[in-house]
Amino acid sequence: MTSLLRRYGWLLLTLLSTSLQAQTLWEGASRQRLAAIFADGLHHQPDAAADVAALSAPFLGVPYRAHTLIGSKHTPERLVVDLQGMDCFTFLDYVEALHRSHSERDFLPALVATRYSEGRLDFRHRRHFFSDWFARAPVNALDITQSLSPAAQTVVKRLNAKPGPPGAEYLPGLGIVTRHISYIPASAIDAALLAKLQNGDYIGIYAPSLGLDITHAGIFLRTTAGPMLRNASSRSSYRRVMDTPFLDYVKHTPGIVVLRPL
Where in the chain is the domain with CATH 1.10.3670.10? Predict the structure, then answer.
């Protein structure tokens, strides 16, 4: 069996890639951007966090674009690849998929593995919440929030529960998920905490709402200008992927959730 896999593994990968191509929505400009990223040879970083930091750089300046994904309780899921416009979460999807890829051919399977639990391309298996990255198998990253600060707090959430009549959902048909979410309050984000963060850590901005885990996400970076949050900003004055001074941003938030890439 091992020898057969070795001999015909390339064929299996080709068939999988061909099948995904048929289910994928992406335009020529996104394909060209992907090719350029691989041509730049960015996959040569010393560790996972550095790899994530480097692979996020080509997206700087890309316009913010919300609601690009297709799929719902009543609409069949499609694998959307839009490298020309992204929100804060699809930005992380693309960076993590690149981190998992060794070549352009790997990218679509890697994106499926990143965006969907169990690699199943359907609405119910899509990782709709930031905490799905560490709570649904196979995991995308490790939740290290509790280990970073003694001030970390843990709250029991009912994810997808929407204020209103009983049973109301933000995403109809997804159901309610009870989950423990740990976060570090903004008041506890100090020099000692910053020293423990690594280039490329995934940062979620904690949401006080019972039905949400975070409201925004980005990537932590150390730069010559100080710590930054690389993020797809929806603010009307920005509307693009950019670097925002980390401390200036998080001090006005309830706190942060920190995931470390594998």
Answer: 4-119
